[in-house]
Amino acid sequence: MLPGSNSWKEGKARFGLSLQGQVGLKQEDRIERLPGQPYVNFSQYGGYVTVDKSAGRALYYYFVEAHHSKNSLPLLLWLNGGPGCSSFTGALVELGPFRVHSDGKTLYTNKFSWNYAANVLFLESPAGVGFSYSNTTSDYDKRESYAGHYVPQLAHTILYHNKKANKTIINLKGIIIGNAAINDETDEQGLVDYLGSHAIISNEDVYQIHKYCDFSPNATAQSRECEASYLALEDNIIAINIYNIYAPLCFSSNVTTRPKRASILEFDPCSNNYMYVYLNRPDVQEALHANVTKLTHDWEQCGDTIQAWTDSPSTIIPLLKEFMDNGIRVWIFSGDIDGRVPVTSTLYSINKMKLSVKTPWQPWFLNQEVGGYTQVYKGDLTFATVREAGHQVPSYQPARALSLIKHFLNGTPLPNITAFRI
């Protein structure tokens, strides 16, 4: 957790890419119906994409068509971060069409699913995450760095090949990242200040950390005073959910015999456990066309196969600037009660870009209530907070998250106070 270490790079950041005009689905990957699934009027698919035949490396995908207008709505690619965390978290805990009941057997509908706004593709990446696999054992070590690149590197590659071919091979429209590590130095400074301003660590600890710790990307070792201050920080956060500093904790890993009453609007701290049980059922894996190689381990939300992350870039600011220079829409959103990659970290990192403000800081609204706050910068970068949301924004504020993604995909600003007054 110290500056310069890898232990606090497990931020589980989520990323989205907005694409248009993509076609070609394999009929054999169509999922007829998931066990315990309620009726839906859209199609879903699951299966593997081989990315390196010689290494026996394949990535698992889960794709849900839009509820309506599937041929005209865009394709949204969703990746969870970690590194090493499965995008089924996005599908079954955050923004997908279903959530898992407490019995680990049945599903219920998410009326705020993002496939009301787009066709959504969830990809378990890199190999070794979730149901994705590689038959080359050493491949897991060689490819650890890929987990640190994720969507920014993918978007960069798309732009590169579009330019190289002098045509639009993939029609990339925008990139949206949520509660993501952007710039190590300012991210860590922002984390310390956030915990101090929210009475989680003492003012003395904040002072000591800023005085004795080296946040620069070249830092390799820290002073004893810095280490002592971070030990105090860890002692103060160990008993809370750092991904939502006000959320209840899950005290039981057991599923229930019968499903408890569930509501999309009420956060269940044990929902990750329900997902784990559900995805490890053989009938569920068969329906998903998953685990075809019969992996020797259970499906896990976040595995420790991808951990070293030794050559991850310390900043993605140059990539964000590249996207803006090429007319790619960039949105960054932040749940305002996330203590892992807090709003202060994101703001400090954006400030590092020295952008001119186009639309000043103001509240945005949903159903006549403040949904969060937003500021738009010249070059088509929008920053938005989501009020009362933790690290996994759609889990805590699904309606506000859906409103945000709709405006991103449509390229329209979030509703301001003028809409509220009307």
TrEMBL record:
<keyword id="KW-0121">Carboxypeptidase</keyword>
<protein>
    <submittedName>
        <fullName>Uncharacterized protein</fullName>
    </submittedName>
</protein>
<keyword id="KW-1015">Disulfide bond</keyword>
<dbReference type="GO" id="GO:0005773">
    <property type="term" value="C:vacuole"/>
</dbReference>
<dbReference type="InterPro" id="IPR001563">
    <property type="entry name" value="Peptidase_S10"/>
</dbReference>
<keyword id="KW-0378">Hydrolase</keyword>
<keyword id="KW-0325">Glycoprotein</keyword>
<comment type="similarity">
    <text>Belongs to the peptidase S10 family.</text>
</comment>
<dbReference type="Pfam" id="PF00450">
    <property type="entry name" value="Peptidase_S10"/>
</dbReference>
<dbReference type="GO" id="GO:0006508">
    <property type="term" value="P:proteolysis"/>
</dbReference>
<dbReference type="GO" id="GO:0004185">
    <property type="term" value="F:serine-type carboxypeptidase activity"/>
</dbReference>
<keyword id="KW-0645">Protease</keyword>
<keyword id="KW-0732">Signal</keyword>
<dbReference type="InterPro" id="IPR029058">
    <property type="entry name" value="AB_hydrolase_fold"/>
</dbReference>
